[in-house]
Every structure is written in structure tokens, then in C-alpha cells.
Amino acid sequence: MPAQPTEICENCTVNRIDLRRCAGCSVVRYCSKECQKAHWKAHKPYCVSNAELARQAAELGPDYSDSLTAIGKWCDAFSVPIGAASASALNLMNYPERIDDFVLVIYVDFLGPSAKAPHTHDIVDADVLPLDALLAHARGILLDKAAIFERNLAPRPGMIRVLLRDRRYPWSYTTPFVVPRNIREWLYDPLWFEHLQICVTRPGRPVRPRDRGDSST
Questions:
Q1: 38 C-beta neighbours (distance < 10 Å), count
Q2: Residue 9: how many CB atoms within 10 A of its CB?
Q3: pLDDT band at 3 (very low <50, low <70, confident <90, very high)
Q4: Helices of type H across the chain
Q5: How confident is the model over 16-45, as a mean pLDDT?
Q6: Greater confidence, 180 or 30?
Q7: Which of 92, 113, 136, 151 is 20 to 30 Å apart from 158, CA to CA?
Q8: Parallel, antiparallel, or unpaired: how do β-strands 20-21 and 121-130 relate?
Q9: How far apart are CA 102 and CA 32, in angstroms?
């Protein structure tokens, strides 16, 4: 499958795979400095809010915040295969309405500080879960800090929500992916999990066995 744009510029809505994050909040993305400047008036209040959510995440501890940073970089490196796998996981080719009600949760294992980028994490499991159940669980275990994940998992038009979870922590990293305009023409991949594992595993290393022992959220 050819590489597909997986990200969208907040200003001009162009789909690309190399957008840059806002330096203030590290959440929204832009295709150029011109688009970022043009969108600043609309983005400013959200930028401040996103930065506050990042501060709350940091309060969960340095190991947690460092984990978010590592997973974020890994996700950026493999955004195309993750986005493609997400489309098949939710079966958006045949049921596009699922994009608003379900979230793909990918369970990852950090390979340690000596792991060489971009192959810093293994994928060990994945689940497609109802958004309502996911948010209810977040509120139950994170209490006042649940806003971090409620904000990031809120439905966005044309965007797949993906939660990348390091099992050492209750929650990890949420990210959206753009649904390609020609998604109806894509073929459903029943082996999307296995193919995604192969894509992110360093060449020459064995693919990890799927671990279904603790996929509850």
C-alpha cells in the first residue's frame, strides 16, 4: 500500500505526512509558518489549555512524561503504517460511521534508552474499544487529570483517534490520524495487526508474540 497522508494542517486542512507541531503545546500541526501565524488567533486559547494539560501530565512523574515523549517520537516515525492499520482496525472501508464511536488502543513496550530510533518500541497487542467506555475508565483512574485524555480523544471530523499505551502506566499517548478521502477504495486488511508489527520491528529482530494477557483498560 502506498504511503498515505496521515496528518492535517489545522489552518489550511492540507493532508501531509511531515507536518510540524506547534512549539507551544506540541499538539496541533501546521504545514508552514505562514499557516501557523494565520491560525494563531483561533488557536491561542487552545494552545494555553493544551500546555496546561501537558503540565498536568508532567505532574504524574518524570518517568511518565518521558514515556509520552518517547512514544510521541515513535508514533511520528511510523505514522503512515499506524494510520493505515487504524483504518482496517475500525473497518472504515465498510463502516465509516465507526470513526466517531470507537478508538484503537495499541499496547507498546519501550525497549529501553539504548534502543536506536526509530525502532524504540514493540507492539504487543491492540484492541478497538468504544469511546464511551474508554473515557469512563479514564475518569475512574485519573480523576481530575482525566481531562488530558478526554480532550485528546474528543471526536474530530475525519480523524481516527488512536491511544498508544505503555502498560507501565494507566494511560499513555493519544494521537489522531486523517482518514484518506479514498478510504472506500481501500481493501480491508484482516492482518492489520501482524502487518503493523512487522513495520515497527527493527529488521533482523523477531516479531514479538501477541500478548493478550492484559489488554483491559
A1: 15
A2: 19
A3: very low
A4: 33-59, 62-77, 79-89, 131-142, 147-153, 192-200
A5: 83
A6: 30
A7: 136
A8: unpaired
A9: 31
Parse the chain into domains and list their residue ranges: 7-59, 61-217
Residues belonging to the chain: 217
Query: Is the pLDDT at 140 greater than 50, yes or no?
Result: yes
One-letter amino acid at 199 equals C
What's the pLDDT at 87? Answer: 94
Give me the percent of the chain exceeding a pLDDT of 90.
35
The string of DSSP codes covering 26-66 is S-SEESSHHHHHHHHHHHHHHHHHHHHHHHHHHHT-HHHHH
Contact 94, 177 (CB under 8 A): no
Residue 160 in grid coordinates: 481516527
- Give the mean pLDDT of 39-55: 77
Give the mean pLDDT of 22-46.
84
Dist. CA 171–CA 185, nearest whole Å: 34
- Residues paired with 107 in a beta bridge: 125, 165
Instruction: Give the position of cell 474530530.
Output: 156
